[in-house]
Amino acid sequence: MDTKPISVLVIDGDTASRNYLTVVLQKSGYTVLTASLGREGLISAWKDQPDIIILDPVLPDLPGPELVNRLRQDRRTSKVPCVALSSQQDSQDMNALLSAGCNEYMAKSSQALPRLLELIPRLLKGESTAPKKHGILIAFLSAKGGTGTSSLCANIAMCLGSEKIETRVAVMDLVLPIGSIASIVGYHDRLNLVTAAMQDPAQTTAAFFKDNLPRVPNWYFHLLAGSPDPESANQLAVNRLDGILNSIMESHDYILVDMGRALSRISLPIIQRADVVVLIVGTDLSTAILTQTVWEYLKNQGIDPRRLYPLQNRAVGLEGLSKTELEQMTGLQIRFTMPYMSGNFTIANNRHEPVIAKFPNDSSAFTLKQAAIQIAELGQRSHG
Ligand SMILES: Nc1ncnc2c1ncn2[C@@H]1O[C@H](COP(=O)(O)OP(=O)(O)OP(=O)(O)O)[C@@H](O)[C@H]1O
Ligand SMILES: [Mg+2]
């Protein structure tokens, strides 16, 4: 039996990060080789023939994609799994690296290391040397509470799920400390974000979510309910979220995430990865001001305006700012206006029924379907 330890080459220009990775990988039993420059990394990769290569694509001497390209073009390293662990989170960067032949791209964060350790054995088994198929990720958020984010997330997911029977739609409720999608759809079982995160990472695979993510009667999607109460939210193993999301993305065609109004370290990486960011905007003055601030922030975090889907929701009534006023105040181009549905939305929610099932002939059902189609189209375009 071959007992040669598995060797990992870490190419990272940042000393602290390189040393940290080395320690973590050595603790997991790997032999670690290091390089602080791209060229040095190439030489080591060709000479030492590591089993896997981890690189920070921002290097002093070579752009990451070029490095990967050269690894792929050489017989000795054409098949060695490569993981980009980037300190910059940039979707253009990510695409360049993946097209150059990098197997995985991750942003450096507290969640990256557990995911990396989970990933290495899979990459070595050759499980994901071909780029993995991922569903379309759609994030729902708002700058202010009570603007209809959760109701729209659940109802738009319902529209997507009822369009074609074979489309697999998942909703993930990430609102902390209490999720509300479960109470909208009438879900009471035990599996939720917190209990899923308590399971062994080896357990929560794509196959697990494919088989076990519950479908609530009347709702045509699978739900990973949120935290049921603040006490549970305190127990949430935050570093497991990324792995769970990845598994659900692998097992579903559309993944809609209710992020509420949280712009936290948890939600930001997900928003950055999303194919569509549905930003729900209310019609009152304070929402407009907050929305402008949130959008400024998101832009600074590298969110591509083309992926943004600002949706004006008249949740409280007919009064309030018009579309034009809202656009002027926020600098956003509103893509869709959801009319005030008087009591319909609340009645449907209270009965745990989708609007399109409860009021199929109402204009609100038609409007929701239209928004769902537009969001899906934008998702397909961004997904490439
Ligand atoms: N277009 C609309 N017309 C009428 N009522 C609406 C509309 N949109 C949402 N509502 C109602 O507004 C209320 C708040 O909705 P919801 O809970 O979805 O908002 P939220 O932004 O998720 O709130 P929270 O900040 O509590 O998470 C619900 O009672 C919902 O039925
Ligand atoms: Mg909500």
- CA-to-CA gap between the ends? 44 Å
Largest sheet: 7 strands, parallel
- SSE order, one letter for each helix or strand: EHEHEHEHEHEHEHHHEHHEHEHEHEHHH
Please indicate the percent range of residues in DSSP E strands (runs of 2 or more): 15-25%
Q: What does the radius of gyration come to?
A: 22 Å
Low-confidence stretches: none
Number of strands: 12
Identify the CATH class of the largest domain.
Answer: Alpha Beta
Would you identify the CATH architecture of the largest domain?
A: 3-Layer(aba) Sandwich
Mean pLDDT: 92
Task: Count the domains.
Answer: 2
Chart the SSEs and their pairings.
Layout: E1 7-11, H1 15-27, E2 31-35, H2 38-48, E3 52-55, H3 64-73, E4 82-86, H4 91-100, E5 104-107, H5 112-124, E6 136-142, H6 149-163, E7 169-173, H7 181-185, H8 193-198, H9 206-212, E8 222-224, H10 230-234, H11 241-251, E9 254-258, H12 267-273, E10 276-281, H13 285-300, E11 308-313, H14 323-330, E12 336-338, H15 344-350, H16 355-358, H17 363-383
Parallel strand pairs: 1-2, 1-3, 3-4, 4-5, 6-9, 6-10, 7-8, 7-9, 10-11, 11-12
The structure holds adenosine-5'-triphosphate and magnesium ion (MG).
Magnesium ion binds at residues 149-150, 175, 180, 260.
